[in-house]
Specification:
Chain lengths: 270, 741
């Protein structure tokens, strides 16, 4: 094995990064591959990021992995890796959850290399993925002061979405000071789930928190919310941020300093 | 909240559009860096890459600016709509003298205004699809041919002047095709695919869309109306003519088990990027129902107007211009009929900037099928004699088979094309063999195109078999050893031989060439039975012989003179056909009872478009279905009959005594009370698994009898429903017909 320092000095790669746990990347991929088929992974000195829209342009995925979250990270020049997510899924299937994962891209930028190394360092697998040219536009997302921000356990979010998804196509989310309410009206009947901010804070991951500027009441497609729920394994909590006539932001944080996965969803018209 | 369609209300949309723009975010400057070896070709030729270094903070002005632009854009759009409206109304009145203006943009260099739209673009971008959608909308609103030609001419001229590369995709979109006919590229998308794509693009459920479609009748109108209940994150880049065409081709080329889903995704992508008007025409084009009142002929006239040669200064009168335009159209028409491939013609047109010289560069080519020459039906001897006064004519048997245009290419390949230019070569490996045999005595042949009829043939009895037998042949990947229905080629014309087009030759010379070139093989490759006549004497006898031999009738063609050349895809007076059924020798009408109906589409939306007819089986006391009937109706009849049945003659359930098969395509949208008898004619009767008439009374136990090409004649007010044609009568008619074969 080559030591980390040697690798750094001898590297002919424009970009090289190592993550101790392949499971993180695997989960991220699971969380976005149903929404987006191809995406550019943008590598810069600050980290690895991805931004893509679904084919209907209704939702947007924005993922950031900060450089400091990696075991090793170096980027001599910013590169963009155009990757077909179905192909990447195939390659990541070959990585164990506890393997470390090294991602490299060279000058030519026509392929990306993946190296998976088992924890005991006795198994090393290497893969090359052909890259593609993806015509995409980068959107700047302005920092917005949202009218309502709801933090809740991601398992609860997932459950609400899948339960209500059985009843109808759209969900009305109403946030007030006292509660956040998810309402569905379908062919077979209607239903709602109402969450109140937790009074007892013994388990921080089970807390529901609401911070409110003004009450919000908006409608969204459940199908997309359900898609976002696939990111639940990435984080114990999820933050929903809403403002009238603005896309909903659903954020999953990857722990301290690592980065985040954010979804944006345009509302439906009443 | 109840699920309901929120059809677009423009003001709301506009407001949101502006707000949305303020949310989003500036598109970043794009840094193009081509990359080697892309594993997948991107849709656009320019690949854009972003580097994070370019990321910049959003100043307030960045965010506000796009919003302002959008307001302007919206204002423009409103203006455009009103202008369009006035244009539509006035276009019908002002077109009469318009054809002669400015025939050639290239020599006049005058920028032409498009009267139907204010969409413009620059030469360094691609022509927007919006432009074409505006044109389609205007064309849809008129049926005046002159107005249509005028609009189409403007479309082509504008494109030629700005982005000539977009002309080819534009022509294909206008003709609702994806490529030359023999490439066989089809849209392969059904209504379900379009509905699913529309559903995911707009956020309306398929069920709601379907209900709405039943009311509207046209999927294009549905696509236009149900723009969206779902906002998008930002407006996708607008569609280009080239982009839409390419996307359609990609969809058509998809194959395999997941292709339907893939096709849906591509279509969804188009629909998301489309404005409501664009969506309307995209949906229609995909289903092959563009309905803008034009066929390729109009396209030819419009193209000819754009590319007409520059008039000499002394001919710059209206009359002179007219002549030039007519000649240009004739040239283009002749060229297109010999080489019906726009991919070959349009580049030449653009290069030459004129129709001059086109004939030399685009010629009849083996491997590219041309439309077969067609014949006019005649009823009586006098019609024929009037036509062929003082010239000899030839009568040929009219075989009951399939037309086949057989091409022999210089590389030794044989290609067989159907009447509709489909490549039937894989279906007929035996014909390929026969052709090689027929040529075996003649080694001077390097290439040819012949016209022929392929007929099912029994080599043991040397008898011809019916058309239905031929239809029973396998279609795909046929192997010679598996062939169950042997066929014989009956050649009757030659269009091309050894690099030379024979189209302009007289039929007499062509026939000689044909007889010289090929040797016949009994039961495999024969010439049609024919006789040369100078007057009517003997023709009637030949007709009888032809019918006895199992043919449909006779073809009658001028042998020499100006009417004897081969005119591809032209139903001219030069060839006449005489069939036994034109002579009214058979064709008893049937009196049938409508028991159900199907909602009309397109032109017939809002009324019933077709009906399910039944005969009466007196033994089982059942009404048994015998055909779907959709021709022979006037528009007035359809609306009155729809009203009649809707006023209390519709059943919630079919009567227990309706004998209807389980075939889904047969199930009518509504069931009728049996209360009328309709007189109907048809071409002939055939066995069908989808219909139940006389089921079990004929040799094939599980099939019923069905009418082929039924046609409505009138309502039999005088007949009660149980006096309708009975199953027994149908059996009799079917058996009679068989004995005549």
């Amino acid at each position: 094995m080559v030591s980390k320092e040697e690798q750094n000095s001898s590297s002919s790669f424009q970009f090289e990064a190592r993550l101790t746990q392949a499971s993180l990347i695997k989960k991220i991929l699971e969380a976005i591959k149903d929404l987006v088929t191809d995406a550019n992974f943008d590598c810069s000195a600050e980290g690895l990021s991805l931004q893509a829209m679904d084919s209907s342009h209704v939702s947007l995925v924005s993922m950031v992995l900060h450089a400091q979250g990696f075991e090793m990270f170096q980027c001599q020049r910013a590169v963009s890796l155009g990757i077909n997510l179905a192909s990447l899924t195939k390659i990541l299937k070959c990585a164990g959850n506890d393997d470390s994962i090294t991602l490299r891209a060279d000058e030519k930028g026509d392929k990306a290399e993946f190296v998976f190394e088992s924890q005991s360092q006795d198994r090393l697998s290497e893969f090359e993925l052909k890259l593609m040219d993806i015509d995409s536009e980068h959107l700047g997302i302005p920092d917005t002061k949202y009218s309502a921000v709801v933090e809740m356990p991601s398992s609860e979010y997932r459950r609400i979405c899948s339960d209500l998804g059985l009843m109808g196509d759209t969900v009305r989310i109403s946030v007030s000071k006292e509660s956040v309410k998810f309402q569905v009206d379908g062919d077979i009947g209607k239903g709602s789930v109402c969450l109140h901010p937790s009074s007892v804070v013994d388990k921080p991951t089970e807390v529901v928190k609401i911070s409110l500027e003004e009450p919000v009441d908006m409608i969204f497609s459940i199908r997309y919310l359900n898609n976002f729920a696939k990111a639940a394994p990435l984080s114990d909590t999820v933050t929903l941020s809403l403002s009238k006539d603005f896309p909903l932001q659903v954020e999953f944080k990857f722990g301290e300093q690592m980065g985040y996965l954010r979804y944006y969803l345009a509302p439906k018209i009443d | 909240m109840r699920t309901r369609l929120c059809f677009l209300v423009p003001p709301v949309h506009k407001i949101f559009y502006v707000q949305r723009a303020s949310f989003i975010m500036k598109r970043k400057a794009v840094n193009a860096s081509p990359r080697k070896q892309p594993s997948k070709v991107p849709k656009s030729s320019i690949c854009s890459y972003l580097s994070l270094q370019q990321k910049e903070e959003h100043s307030l002005s960045d965010i506000v600016k796009p919003a302002k632009e959008n307001v302007n854009q919206n204002a423009n759009m409103t203006q455009q709509t009103s202008q369009e409206d006035s244009e539509t109304s006035s276009s019908t009145s002002e077109h009469s003298s318009s054809l002669v203006e400015n025939p050639n943009p290239v020599c006049e260099e005058k920028l032409v205004e498009c009267t139907f739209t204010n969409v413009t673009w620059q030469g360094n971008s691609r022509a927007p699809f919006r432009f074409l959608a505006d044109a389609f909308e205007t064309m849809e609103a008129t049926t005046s041919r002159l107005a249509l030609i005028k609009i189409l001419t403007q479309v082509f001229r504008k494109i030629v002047n700005t982005t000539p590369d977009d002309l080819l995709p534009c022509v294909y979109l206008c003709t609702n095709t994806l490529g030359p006919a023999h490439e066989g590229l089809e849209f392969k998308a059904g209504e379900a695919t379009v509905l699913n794509a529309l559903s995911s693009a707009t956020g309306n459920s398929v069920k709601v869309l379907k209900e709405r479609l039943t009311k509207l009748g046209d999927i294009g109108d549905l696509a236009a109306e149900c723009r969206t209940t779902q906002q998008t994150m930002f407006k996708p880049p607008s569609l280009t003519i080239h982009g839409v065409y390419q996307e359609f081709r990609t969809m058509a080329n998809l194959a395999g088990k997941l292709s339907t889903k893939e096709r849906e995704k591509h279509l969804q992508k188009l629909l998301v990027s489309a404005s409501s008007k664009e969506a309307k025409y995209i949906a229609r084009i995909v289903l092959g129902k563009l309905r803008i009142h034009i066929a390729y002929k109009t396209v030819i006239v419009a193209l000819a107007t754009v590319f007409a040669p520059c008039p000499k200064s002394d001919a710059k009168t209206t009359d002179g211009m007219d002549v030039i335009l007519k000649e240009a159209a004739a040239t283009l028409n002749a060229v297109y009929s010999q080489l019906p491939v726009w991919d070959r013609i349009i580049p030449v047109l653009i290069q030459n900037k004129s129709t001059e010289g086109l004939e030399e560069q685009c010629r009849l080519t083996p491997g590219v099928p041309v439309g077969p020459m067609l014949a006019k039906p005649v009823k009586e001897a006098s019609d024929v004699l009037e036509r062929f006064q003082e010239c000899s004519f030839v009568c040929e048997y009219k075989y009951d088979g399939m037309r086949a245009q057989i091409h022999y290419l210089t590389d030794g390949n044989v290609k067989i094309f159907s009447r509709n230019a489909e490549d039937d070569t894989p279906k007929y490996p035996d014909i390929v063999e026969s052709i090689k045999f027929a040529l075996s005595k003649n080694n001077t042949v390097t290439s040819f195109i012949i016209d022929s009829e392929v007929v099912a043939y029994d080599p043991e009895t040397n008898a011809m078999k019916s058309f239905q037998e031929l239809q029973g042949r396998a279609r795909k990947e046929v192997k010679i050893e598996d062939i169950k229905v042997p066929v014989c080629i009956f050649a009757f014309d030659i269009l091309f031989l050894n690099g030379e087009s024979l189209l302009k030759w007289s039929l007499k010379d062509r026939r000689e060439k044909l007889f010289d070139t090929f040797s016949t093989i009994q039961g495999k490759f024969q010439f049609t039975t024919s006789k040369v006549f100078t007057d009517w004497e003997g023709v009637d006898e030949m007709m009888d012989e032809a019918i006895k031999a199992g043919c449909e009738g006779l073809m009658i063609k001028a042998l020499t003179g100006e009417y004897s050349s081969y005119e591809p895809c032209n139903r001219s007076q030069n060839w006449l056909k005489m069939k036994k059924d034109y002579m009214n020798s058979i064709g008893d009408s049937l009196d049938l009872v409508p028991i159900g109906a199907y909602y009309g589409r397109g032109k017939r939306s809002g009324v019933f478009g077709a009906f399910l007819l039944a005969c009466y089986n007196s033994e089982t006391e059942e009404f048994q279905t015998v055909c779907k009937l959709g021709t022979g109706f006037s528009d007035e009849f359809l609306s009155s009959i729809t009203k009649f049945y809707k006023d209390g003659h519709i059943l919630a359930e079919p009567k227990p005594y309706y004998g209807v098969s389980d075939t889904p395509a047969i199930r009518p949208d509504v069931w009728f009370e049996p209360c009328q008898v309709w007189e109907t004619r048809c071409a002939d009767l055939t066995m069908s698994p989808s219909h139940t008439a006389a089921k079990g009374m004929l040799s094939e136990e599980d099939k019923g009898v069905a009418l082929r090409f039924p046609r409505f004649i009138r309502i039999r007010e005088d007949k009660p429903v149980d006096d309708a044609t009975t199953a027994d009568q149908i059996v009799e008619l079917y058996c009679n017909q068989k004995s005549k074969m």
